[in-house]
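Chapter review: from sequence to fold.
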Amino acid sequence: MSLHLVKYVFHVRRELNRALEGLSEADLDKRVAGINSCAWIVAHLAWQEQRYWLEPRGLPQVADLSAYRNGATLTNPNFAEVYPLWQEIIRQSESWLEGLAEDDLRNHFRGNKFFELENIGSLMTRVIGHYYLHIGQITAIRKILGYEVPGFVGSQEGAYYE
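The token string follows.
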């Protein structure tokens, strides 16, 4: 059985999809009111997940997503190009995340000062918080563009604390 933090990482990924649901292709690529586009947000989250779950384990990058890292020059990618990359990165991380035991959450990836300071469990909490920050931005984009705003936090099914 997956750990609660792992279940919640999976839950917040579903929440991202729920926030994106129903937006037109044009609106997914649009930068609104100074907020990065939904396409950029997805690419940025893909960059983080690849950096946290694939690269430290020596797996090859799905794509060079450095253009979407923190502090990078603003770019505006195409959603149809970056969404499949995000899907592949999360697919490649799922079985590893599901296989983690409680003690694994206290472990650190080696070879990078940031990863030596943060353990795997704290990286998961960073991912969860980071997703919710960007889901909030997508919610603002939806509201500005006249879309219905999804209710706060969808079904927690599969993420219940046990």
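Two observations follow directly from the output. DSSP finds six helices and no strands in the chain. Residues 36 and 66 are 16 Å apart (CA to CA).
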